[in-house]
Write a structure and sequence with these properties.
It is a multi-pass membrane protein. The two termini are about 40 Å apart. The chain is elongated. The longest helix has about 40 residues. It is mainly alpha-helical and about 325 residues long. About 65% of the residues lie in helices and about 0% in strands. Helix 9 runs parallel beside helix 10. A hairpin with a 2-residue loop joins strand 1 and strand 2. The protein has a single domain, classed as MetI-like fold. Strands 1-2 form a two-stranded antiparallel sheet.
Length: about 325
């Protein structure tokens, strides 16, 4: 029976042990601001999750507003509905609108930015970026209000398809963020296209699609994803502002913005909790995503600086190194065959 506990097994064990802390290295590098942001986001998600289990957001549990108690930790609103349950529903609504809008903007904006950056200085670059600047003609929040004002706040029916107001709000916010991601992706792509490894790959006749998706996009995504956290903070704020103005998800569905708006007439009385507690959850989400974005962006900039300083002459930058002459590993040449 062969002994399988020799050097190969020991080497595999050592490799696995070394890999375990590496999985959490990105958490250790967050810094104080990043950890604070992570705590805020976790607290936001806890309120959204625990509140959903507390009761129905539409059930009348009291005869009117009541202060926070053990039975109702966030108190009740002016109609006697549990405010923790409604805050949880509002937090989830704000979160899915935020994720949908930023996901849409990230995909579309990155595609536009990478395409424009690859054709830097050409007609396609000019056409795409002029289109992006058209969207930026108005301030982002004003643009979103303009789009929602055009399409209205009622559900839209296209045959069997129904588009709710929440989807329209998410798309309006997402369209407003497309130029934001397009510019970041274009700038990063222009930098990558000037690197030696891309020039060498183009000289070898590697198809542009393979260069973009296999090499360039890998190095463009980190700064784009870093900006996504900052954009999420703005999206949460934008959704709250739209709901506060009555342009977001309509009643009886709860959002953090319309909860604060509904509390407007109660603040002058004794119902301090009505606007304060949902507003605090909204602030947690905004600050949490903002601090995470700042920490991720700072970490990415530091890593890029270290990479530039440590890359030897003739080597490819980024994570695609590993060959001679500035050509990423995996591409055979006449010299390396």
């Amino acid at each position: 029976m062969p002994d399988r506990s020799g050097p190969p097994a020991a080497a595999a064990t050592a490799k696995a042990s070394a890999a375990r802390p590496a999985r959490f290295r990105h958490l250790r590098n967050l810094g104080p601001a990043g950890w604070t942001g992570l705590v805020f986001v976790v607290a936001y998600l806890l309120v959204a999750t625990v509140g959903q289990l507390h009761g129905s957001p539409t059930e009348l549990v009291t005869l009117g507003p009541e202060a926070p108690s053990l039975a109702h930790p966030f108190g009740t609103d002016h109609l006697g509905r549990d405010l923790l349950a409604r805050t949880a529903e509002g937090a989830w609504t704000s979160l899915w609108i935020c994720l949908t809008s930023i996901g849409f903007a990230l995909v579309v904006g990155t595609a536009i930015g990478v395409s424009a950056g690859y054709r830097h200085g050409g007609r396609l670059d000019g056409l795409l970026m002029r289109s992006v600047e058209t969207v930026q003609a108005l301030p982002q929040f004003i643009f979103v209000m303009f789009v929602i004002g055009l399409v209205g706040t009622q559900d839209m029916h296209w045959g069997p398809l129904t588009i709710g107001n929440g989807v329209r709000v998410a798309l309006a916010i997402g369209i407003g963020f497309v130029p934001y991601f397009a510019r970041v992706a274009r700038a990063a792509t222009v930098v990558e296209m000037r690197e030696d490894y891309v020039v060498n790959l183009r000289g070898l006749g590697v198809p542009p699609r393979e260069i973009l998706f296999r090499e360039v996009l890998v190095n463009v995504l980190p700064p784009v994803l870093g900006q996504a956290f900052l954009a999420m903070a703005i999206a949460v704020f934008a959704e709250g502002g739209l709901s506060f103005l009555g342009l977001g998800v309509p009643a009886p569905h709860a959002t953090l913005g319309n909860l604060v708006a509904d509390a407007g007439g109660q603040i002058l009385g004794d119902a301090w909790w009505y606007a304060t507690l949902p507003g605090a959850v909204l602030v947690l989400g905004i600050l949490g995503f903002n601090l995470l974005g700042e920490a991720y962006g700072s970490r990415n900039r530091n890593r890029s600086t270290r990479s530039v300083r440590s890359v030897p002459a003739g080597a490819a930058p980024g994570g695609t190194t590993g060959s001679t002459g500035g050509i990423p590993a995996g591409y055979a040449t006449e010299e390396t065959k």
